[in-house]
């Protein structure tokens, strides 16, 4: 299974939705809670090419984007193969 990293905050509905999809797929994602570790937000912004919103999702070091991007990958049938790498 590919390494999955999600930058998220506890109050974010989009974060909860993305994490629920990953949990449904039985993916053990590493979650970086930027509301608890604010110094990690700068890391997220740099890794996400300037994107400041959460969630920011990375699969196998590839920047996926946010929740809508993750859901679109799943709808197109491209998420499961990416997770298997």
From TrEMBL:
List residues of the Glutaredoxin domain: 4-64
PROSITE patterns, per the entry: GLUTAREDOXIN_2
Tell me which Pfam families the record gives.
Glutaredoxin (PF00462)
Gene Ontology biological process terms in this record: cell redox homeostasis; cellular response to oxidative stress
> What Gene Ontology cellular component terms go with this record?
cytoplasm
GO MF term set: glutathione disulfide oxidoreductase activity
Q: Which UniProt keywords apply?
A: Cytoplasm, Electron transport, Redox-active center, Transport
Tell me the InterPro entries matching this sequence. Answer: Glutaredoxin, Glutaredoxin_subgr, GRX_bact, Thioredoxin-like_sf
- Domain of life per record: Bacteria
Q: What does this protein do?
A: Has a glutathione-disulfide oxidoreductase activity in the presence of NADPH and glutathione reductase. Reduces low molecular weight disulfides and proteins.
Record family assignment: Belongs to the glutaredoxin family.
Which named protein is this? Glutaredoxin
Instruction: Supply the source organism's classification.
Output: Bacteria, Pseudomonadati, Pseudomonadota, Acidithiobacillia, Acidithiobacillales
């Amino acid at each position: 299974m590919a390494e999955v990293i999600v930058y998220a905050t506890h109050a974010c509905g989009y974060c909860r939705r993305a994490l629920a999809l990953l949990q449904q797929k039985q993916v053990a994602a590493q979650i970086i809670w930027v509301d608890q570790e604010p110094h990690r937000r700068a890391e997220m912004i740099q890794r996400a090419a300037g994107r400041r919103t959460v969630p920011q999702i990375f699969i196998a070091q590839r920047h996926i984007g946010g929740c809508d991007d993750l859901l679109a990958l799943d709808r197109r049938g491209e998420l499961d193969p990416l997770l298997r790498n």
